[in-house]
TrEMBL record, chains A, B:
CDD domains: APP-like. Belongs to the peptidase M24B family. Signal peptide: none annotated. Pfam families: Creatinase_N (PF01321), Peptidase_M24 (PF00557). Keywords: Aminopeptidase, Hydrolase, Metal-binding, Protease. GO terms for molecular function: aminopeptidase activity; metal ion binding. Residues 134-333 form the Peptidase M24 domain. Residues 2-126 form the Creatinase N-terminal domain. This is X-pro aminopeptidase. It comes from the Archaea.
Amino acid sequence: MRVKKLRDLMEKEALDYVILSPGSNTFYLTGFFEEQMERPLFLIISKDDEFFLAPKLYEEQLEKTKIATISYEDGENPYSKLTLKTGSSIGVDDQLWSVFLIQIINNFKPSKIIEASKMLRKLRAIKDEQEISTMKEGIKIAEKSFLQFLDYVTEGIPECKLANILEEKFIENGADGYSFKTILTSGPNTSMPHLRCTDRKINRNEPIIVDFGVKYKNYSTDTTRVVSIGNVSEDVKKVYEIVKEAQISAENGEENMTAMKIDSLAREKITMAGYGKFFIHRTGHGIGIDVHEDPYISQDNLERVTNGMIFTVEPGIYVPGKFGIRIEDMVFMEKRGKPLNSLEKNIFIV
Amino acid sequence: MRVKKLRDLMEKEALDYVILSPGSNTFYLTGFFEEQMERPLFLIISKDDEFFLAPKLYEEQLEKTKIATISYEDGENPYSKLTLKTGSSIGVDDQLWSVFLIQIINNFKPSKIIEASKMLRKLRAIKDEQEISTMKEGIKIAEKSFLQFLDYVTEGIPECKLANILEEKFIENGADGYSFKTILTSGPNTSMPHLRCTDRKINRNEPIIVDFGVKYKNYSTDTTRVVSIGNVSEDVKKVYEIVKEAQISAENGEENMTAMKIDSLAREKITMAGYGKFFIHRTGHGIGIDVHEDPYISQDNLERVTNGMIFTVEPGIYVPGKFGIRIEDMVFMEKRGKPLNSLEKNIFIV
């Protein structure tokens, strides 16, 4: 049981409490999902107990988790209902808002504060059967949506409009929504890897980067493909082939390689082709409930990528002011990396 | 200029730095919007300077803000690039993730940490002309979508499916998306005010609560109406009328009343009708870039609601295991409360 495993790890860290916010960690441990909000809602795990502190309006909903709830009404001071040992050592959710941590510090004067992810990320990085099958279903929905969306890629349509069409397809095909606001950039905008979309109209013969993912049963997908109306220039083609080679190389990484090694499989290809300085981000990241989670496939990560992990491989080359290219698949580690995506890896010419 | 106003407030609090995460505060001050992520991206404001600390992949995008950026590459230690005075007094974004606050504490040993909202919420609570007009446009889109969505409310359709249809309408009508995952509950599920939706199928003659909002140009809307296929029971009707009376009463609150007073205008009506213990949340909340922001219309808030503020008025009655009713409009304070919504306040019988 997941809470029990966490408790074993808490013991090793000599922690008295782990305090989690609504979000992925709480969902992972209890099945209860909610966004973080301005009202404190914590899942608190101690050596021998676990309970929620929650606004009264969640009381009935939380009963389903079978975990005890200390509830407070709007207008009451939630912290006065909590009895935590003063001077204890605590692990807090990485994403817990600072407004709550400041209150916890002021009210309970912890002697030590660490990130709860130190323990939870180890558990969450290894996916179980059910998680894998949910994520595979999510990818199916995402890819089906992408293929349907290609029909709408036409000259003159604004980027954001196109992104919306793709997101509508997600829902039509049974997703709960997107896992992140779609990145859909065209022409020179493609050199900004994290720009979402603008009102720029799509032209013929230019790269369009589509970086998209669905949320399905609280799990995330993340995939990137390049689309173009008609052929792209020789320059773009050349860069595309380099990125593709890098992507495939890292995707074929093996069990127990360090994350850094897998990163280097992609980075070396790009560097050797002379584009090293234009590959301005890591090669990938773990994915599960959160879009970004452990293991991070980056140049400085010495952790080993082991069986059961799911992560993205998404090298890119970005020439400022000109264009960018990125290709991204989700990969499951099972002796060697196995892509979970089935979309072809070439440019989608429409 | 907004940054200048913030600096004046920082001086009063004797703060050396304000450190903001990506999100609503940063958008308010700079026009740059991004979700918070695992890579540190901070907007830092000192007495005489402002700058971003950001991953290199945001460099080109951030140039548009005209604010200097200290950038770092994946694999570099972002905190080593920052020179903040040790032992300084800082204000941090309420929503800054704890993982970053812990790093800031460890690296710069601040002598004092407060919530940046202490200053920013005062600025953000009063909307300017452009904000008001953007929010009005958002409401138009939300209401148009709701009215179109009514055609799909039919016997046997599952709650979540209906919620998705409404969210598709948002996008078709020009919204960027939803401002929060739609709450759409039916029958006994309506007694849980913050349950989102389930696969329960809609029946005739039962209340359906639809609590919905769009995101438009980074601003939020938030509205609740009750829908039913055919008539509802006398019990439900009776409770509905009480909630409606309470809603109208608080909506008519006047300039410079305390938030508590406005809350009580609704609460008294419900209490006098004998349902006080079933009104388990505050009467409303400010709204703007965030769905929930100052002023909170709650029993313990002594702040005054002044001209230029926009907030929701959304009393509710929730009878556990039976049903719940909530009615919510957005209200603009201009001498007295003026509803920004134009949907009628009765049950929508389809």
